[in-house]
Amino acid sequence: MTVDQLEPALAAHYEPLINGEFRSISTETFPAVDAATGARLATITRGGAADVDAAVAAARAAFPKWAATRPEERSLLLHRLADWIEANAERLAAIDTMDIGRTIFETPLDHRIAVGQYRFFASAAVTHDGWNHPVAGGWAIAKREPIGVVGQIIPWNVPAIMTAFKLAPALAAGNTVVLKPDENASLSTLELCTKLAELFPPGVVNVVPGFGDEAGAALTAHPDVDKLAFTGSAEVGRLVAHAGAERLVPVSLELGGKSPNIVFPDIEDLDRVIDNATFAATYCNGQSCLAGTRLFVHDDLYDDFLGKLSASFQGVRVGSPLDPATRLGCLVSEKQGRRVLDYIASGRSDSSLVTGGGRAAVSGSEHGWFIEPTVFETENSSRIAQEEIFGPVLSVIRWKDYDALIDQANDVEYGLAAGVYTTNLKNAMRTADRLHAGSVWVNQYFNLVDGSPFGGYKGSGLGREYCKETLDMYTQLKSIVLAEELPPPLFG
Ligand code: NAD
């Protein structure tokens, strides 16, 4: 699909969704640009503090009625939203591909994951119970109640998944929402708004596009928001946590990662491990918080492994994101491209470049920041092994001693995910136990399962998404104790 084919299906301009209407107070706009070609796709209202105010007021007004709806009603609406995404997934995926430069091979999966999230929380909503317990002469009940107005801020790398991760549990639990998408990747979320406006009562879901230090900061600091949920960088995550602390409102955070991916010497199928480790580092053009970017390879097979890994990276086809044969598209922006090249320069200074290491040119997509799939041999202490790069750059580290391996794997500020390749059950279980990571995948990286808790240890965040416990984060418990009789008098 090309921009021309899509043009009639994209609006020329997108407004915020506030109180069921597409309107804005801000008169400023910003462009949505094709990441590969630089073509202007649409303009978007640059929401500001006044738009956030209006959206929060609408969400506040809608809250009592929405909180009182039966979970079955909320569930039905989430299923209808999922139906619409399924019916429009191809088009939404093409929009994401142009908006952010990720390949058309990958982006349909984002929408399948999003559908899974809306359906999962549609089901979980109707079974998310509190607690009750008979006590002598009565009952003790703990009732789950929605928290109120939730402010949500998401990044650009997987916009459909991030939107679903935030909206599905918050709405299922009976909260009302103000969501701010990322300024680099708003289009598919704004397209979704057409269906959100049709399905949900006015004010239940509000979406204010705009910049982080404007709409984002206004939402974070807003005095009438009851909970904040953020996905993005650790730097901004800290600002959001501070804002939550100022007003004593709960905050959930999904932040960065620098995940270890560990190869034991007992693996049987070297080629398939290499294929999966390549995928772990290059999926999403490497712009995934989950990416397996530190590959620990055992000394016994290291040299053979590295040679084949280099060939595997060279085989990753870089090209136009809209070409179905492409496996690596372009980074989201020039800023991201320059950041990744800066890390590559740092790697050249203290590590050994195995393959890649430069910007790639793609005919017809000259605007795009395509980065060659890159492998370095390095130490765990190097800058490229310690910091999140968010590009297709893999650090390979040799290991011999098991305890030293575990120490190194855990020796980063993050703890989001980890991979282990082994045919030995004891290696798998013992290593999974000892890694400081929210998700550990044995023998298949990125093995995401609906309902399996997703979130980080250490600097990777606070809270868990993707699972029924997420509904706990979007509700609070109220204890009610019922006594059949008044107590016997105490005072005469
Ligand atoms: P970012 O933190 O700069 O931006 C994320 C969002 O925060 C955007 O919507 C942005 O507009 C907003 N924002 C920026 N400054 C703000 C401020 N002062 N106040 C309020 N909001 C503000 O991150 P990014 O560069 O867009 O995304 C990349 C980062 O996100 C990476 O570190 C990556 O690991 C992380 N990430 C984590 C997950 C996860 O689930 N753990 C998923 C995707 C991305």
TrEMBL record:
MF term (GO), any: oxidoreductase activity, acting on the aldehyde or oxo group of donors, NAD or NADP as acceptor
Species assigned in the record: Amycolatopsis carbonis
InterPro entries assigned: Ald_DH/histidinol_DH, Ald_DH_C, Ald_DH_CS_GLU, Ald_DH_N, Aldehyde_DH_dom
Family the entry assigns: Belongs to the aldehyde dehydrogenase family.
Any Pfam family matching the protein: Aldedh
Keyword NADP: no
Coiled-coil zones: none
This enzyme's EC code(s): 1.2.1.-
Domain of life of the organism encoding this protein: Bacteria
UniProt keyword Oxidoreductase present: yes
UniProt keywords, alphabetically: Oxidoreductase
Active site (record annotation): 254
Ranges where the Aldehyde dehydrogenase domain occurs: 26-480
Protein name (Swiss-Prot/TrEMBL): Aldehyde dehydrogenase family protein
